[in-house]
């Protein structure tokens, strides 16, 4: 009965719980959409080419590349300071800044200063909330 009142946390793997849950939920939703709307999806080839021709490819592909680099670098950077969340913090600051600069139409110093401030404050605030208030580990 005493083991029911105790919680053991594996700090090496605890940060993987929520991404795994979210990935499973998104996968189930994707499969549900494919099963319920497969005919519309199969016949949307012409619509897809119209969307692809009208999209902002540098921003779209830049976001994909930045996101892949962000998630790929977070764990190796975080391994220098295990279970402190500094990998999240150190990788999030340039990710937010570069993503913001990528989507900024008029890249002047005056427009970039608020983005720089936000890219410093927002990840730091999120890191503080998760690590100090919620006691959750970040990579």
Report on the architecture of this protein:
This protein is an all-alpha fold. Helices cover 72% and strands 0% of the residues. It has 6 helices and no strands. It has helices at 17-36, 38-42, 45-54, 57-78, 86-103, 109-133. The longest helix has 25 residues, at 109-133. The protein starts with 16 loop residues before the first helix and ends in a 6-residue tail after the last helix. The model has no long low-confidence stretch (mean pLDDT 88).
Instruction: Determine the strand fraction and express it as a percent band.
Output: under 5%
Tell me the distance between the termini.
Answer: 33 Å
Give the low-confidence spans.
none
Radius of gyration, whole Å: 20 Å
Element-by-element helix/strand order: HHHHHH
Give a count of the beta strands, DSSP E runs of length 2 or more.
0
Please outline the helices and strands.
Layout: H1 17-36, H2 38-42, H3 45-54, H4 57-78, H5 86-103, H6 109-133
Would you summarize the structure shown here?
Helices cover 72% and strands 0% of the residues. With 139 residues, it is mainly alpha-helical. The longest helix has 25 residues, at 109-133.
List keywords for this structure.
mainly alpha, flat, 72% helix, 139 residues
